[in-house]
Amino acid sequence: MPGHYDPLLVALSFVVAVFGGYVALDLTAQARTAERRRSLWLAAAALALGVGIWSMHFIGMLALRMDTPVSYDIGLTALSFALAVGVSGAGLFAVARTVPRRFTLPVAGTLTGLGIVSMHYVGMAGMQMAARLAYHGGLVAASVAIAVAASTAALWLAFRATRLWHRLGGALVMGLAVVSMHYVGMAAAHVEPHGHAAVDTGAGLALSTPLLAEITGAGALLLLSLALASSLVDRWLAAEKSAEQEARYRAIVDTAVDPIVVVDEMGIIQSFNRAAETTFGYTAAEMVGVNVKILMPDPHGPLHDGYLARYRRTGERRIIGIGREVEGRRKDGSTFPLDLSVAEWRAGRRRFFTGIMRDITRRKVAEDALRTAKEEAELAREEALRAKDRAERADQAKTKFLAAASHDLRQPLQSLFFFAHALSDKLQGHPTADLLASMTESLDGLKTLLDSLLDVSKLDAGVVRPSVTEFALGPLLDRLANEYAPRAADAGLRLRFVPTRAWTRSDPALLERIVRNLIENAIRYTERGSILLGCRRAGGTLRIEVADTGIGIPESKHEEVFQEFTQLANPERDRRKGLGLGLAIVKRLAALLGHTVTLRSRPGVGSAFVLTVPAVHPRAMPRPARKAPTRAAGKGLVVVVDDDAIILLSMRAMLEEWGYDVVAAMSADQAVDSLLSLGQQPNLIVADYRLREGRTGLQAIRDIYGVCGVRVPAVVLTGDTDPERIAEVQQSGHTLVHKPISPTMLRDIITAAA
After folding, report:
1. 375 vs 361, 369, 372, CA distance in Å?
2. Rounded CA gap, 483 and 479, in Å?
3. Which of 45, 132, 300, 389 meets the CB 3.0–4.6 Å disulfide criterion with 27?
4. How far apart are CA 51 and CA 88, in angstroms?
């Protein structure tokens, strides 16, 4: 196009183009980092780029000085401005809103470049003058190529410029490209005169060309400056907010008691808090910028980079979001256990990982101590079980020993009882009768010993089943007081009884045995003074008390006296002072009934045994019924089965003397044969429990039942104290009698059973 350019206006156009490009790149960077109003910042960037391009174009046209007067059509000029802003915005939004693909940037750059070209040539068409513009095709094509290249470069720079010098360089490149495109386009135009016809400027601009260019440049620079100032203010506010958040974050992180380390996706440490410094022994200055694997012992450290690379490639997680125990390495090379949890987060396109750790050395030590304690406790429990097993075996052995010893002793003792009874009838008035009486007294003492052993065995076996009922204590205690008063008087003692109307809930027979043992114990160990038997109420209970003025018991021996065969004042084991089983039986019976026994005693002053039983509401006492006349003992046939010939002969002699017919047999087969020969049904069966060839009296009774066809009353004699044997006989329903038994008691049992 003929004419010349105003150098100042050309320079102004270049400045506007470069400044517009810089502001557009700055606003685009602001949009990339903005947490909100991102679209608004993109729109501002598009407006800045459009204003810069259009202003540069318009100022560049006004910089041309021609001889032909030129004016500008307002409509076309406004259209060119709209095209500049619109195509810039379309390009920026297209690249910003779309995930970058292979053709996204070239297509957006091409569309933007064509838009800029359209803006340029629409603006050129807005020139009004007495000439016609024509264009050189090659230069037009060159301007189009420059526009497309400049647009593509501008969009590429807009979303990759992150630093100030990036934006400055990009703005300079963009300004040169746009200016080059404009002036190449201007050079492509040439004027063809129409003669001297007048130019219609009614719809054109009336301002002078330099003034219009200066106003356009000033307005563009002002608008772009305001946009840049807005971006700077927003960035300053964001920086203030970020600084505040950073300070808050730093305050939290630095005051945290647990180590916190931030690394990037390459494993390089970005942050290292004070707790981490204390735990690992490094300073933050030493660690920031160093690979985090330095904090990991072999072989984990060298493998860490491979783990991060695999995670970036596949997204496979091993620790992220999952807490786990790991090992850490201090600056001095020592290792220690850690609890580690890792969180992933992003800042723009960068990815970071925050690791929160906790030194669990103390916890591990505590866990090891607890585990050791558990193992020791388990060993102790196993040892206790073994000790318990040994104690149970020892207890079973003791029980079996007592059972065997009792059986072996009772057999000859029973024979002695029967022979002594037979001799007493024949030696009445004979000089040896006193010797026989002394022998009988000795037999009674031995029987007492065996009976006590049997009581302990029965209680240990658990075969004693209490029959609990409610009854009045007064008659029971009164009867015992009357029974033991003569014995106490013979020992030079006074037995005092305090009557009571109280009622209790217990087994009358077992309760009587407890009180009886306590009274006998008091008489045995009281040399002078008195014995008190009474009962007093204590809340909802009754306290049955047996107090004496005897020798007393030291406090250190209060528990020991309730053990078997314990006699504190009988070192010579005088049989007349008992066997040391009375209080042991008392303790077992009280536990069986749910009662408690306590002891108060002072040596040389006396002792008081207190039995605590439940108290119940008293009921009316029934009147005593008349005693039925005693029936004469029934006579009949008695079958006796015992494998001991001496006992068998002595028992047969006694039973026949009492008027019974007797079938005496050493086995069940002999008894069955005898009954079949007689053809008579027995009235009673008396069988020893242990027979020959491993058979028992229970089996013999069943064999005899088979011959009789009916159930005949049966009595089982045994000297065995084995709890299992006792339970077996009691479950059979037969009468159980323990050897040795006195002839008088045997007569009563046989009479009652027959």
Report:
1. 21, 10, 5
2. 6
3. 45
4. 10
At 349, list the tokens. 């396109």
Q: In degrees, to the nearest 5, what angle opens at C-alpha 436 toward C-alphas 430 and 438?
A: 130
What does the pLDDT average to over 441-454?
Answer: 61
Top mean pLDDT of 110-124, 235-249, 311-325, 423-437 is at: 110-124
- Tell me if residue 532 falls in helix, strand or coil: strand
Q: Give, to the nearest 10 degrees, the angle between helix 361-426 and helix 743-753.
A: 100
- Does position 407 have pLDDT exceeding 70, yes or no? no
| Distance in angstroms (rounded) separating the CA atoms of residues 617 and 471 | 10
Report the pLDDT averaged over residues 621-626: 44
**How many other C-beta atoms can be found within 10 angstroms of the C-beta atom of residue 333?**
8
708 class by beta-carbon count within 10 Å (0-12 exposed, 13-18 middle, 19+ buried):
middle
Q: Which residues pair with 302 in a beta bridge?
A: none
Cα end-to-end span (Å), the chain: 156
Contacts of 641 (CB under 8 A, 6+ apart): 665, 666, 667, 668, 671, 685, 686, 687, 688, 691, 697, 700
* Across 285-306, average pLDDT: 81
Tell me the C-alpha distance between 49 and 232, whole Å.
Answer: 17
Cβ neighbours of 574 (radius 10 Å)? 11
3-state DSSP assignment of residue 605: coil
503 has pLDDT over 90: yes
Q: Average pLDDT in the 621-640 region?
A: 56
Q: Which two tokens stand for residue 454?
A: 């049997």
Tokens standing for residue 55: 């202003």
Pairing of strands 661-665, 637-641: parallel
How far apart, in whole angstroms, are the C-alpha atoms of residue 479 and residue 570? 29
Within 10 angstroms of residue 609's Cβ, the number of other Cβ atoms is: 25
Cα–Cα distance measured from residue 742 to residue 32, given in angstroms and rounded to the nearest whole number: 116
pLDDT of the residue at 612: 94
E-strand ranges in 330-434 read 335-347, 350-359
Comparison of pLDDT for 358 and 619, the residue scoring more: 358
Phi, psi of 299 (to 5 degrees): -95, 10
**Angle, CA of 288, 293 and 294, to the nearest 5°:** 70
SS3 145: helix
- What is the CB neighbour count within 10 angstroms for residue 28? 29
Q: Inter-axis angle of helices 361-426 and 723-732, to 10 degrees?
A: 60
For residue 357, list its beta bridge partners.
Answer: 340
pLDDT tens, 215-229?
A: 766 766 776 677 667
> What's the 3-state SS for 644-689?
CHHHHHHHHHHHHHCCCEEEEECCHHHHHHHHHHHCCCCCEEEEEC
Read off the pLDDT of each residue in 396-415 and give the average, rounded to a whole number: 65
Percent of all residues in the chain with a pLDDT value above 70, rounded to a whole number = 75
- Cβ atoms 212, 55 nearer than 8 A: no
Angle 575-580-586 from CA coordinates, rounded to 5°: 130
pLDDT in tens, 26-40: 777 777 666 667 778
Between 449 and 652, name the one with better pLDDT. 652
Instruction: Please give the single-letter amino acid code of residue 52.
Output: G
Which ranges in 136-260 belong to alpha helices (H)? Answer: 137-158, 164-188, 209-255
How large is the average pLDDT for residues 279-290? 91
CA distance 442 to 557: 31
Instruction: Please determine, for residue 45, whether its predicted confidence score (pLDDT) is greater than 50.
Output: yes
Centre a 10 Å sphere on the Cβ of residue 413 and count the other Cβ atoms it contains.
19
Q: How many angstroms separate the Cα of 55 from the Cα of each of 163, 171, 222, 707?
A: 26, 15, 12, 139
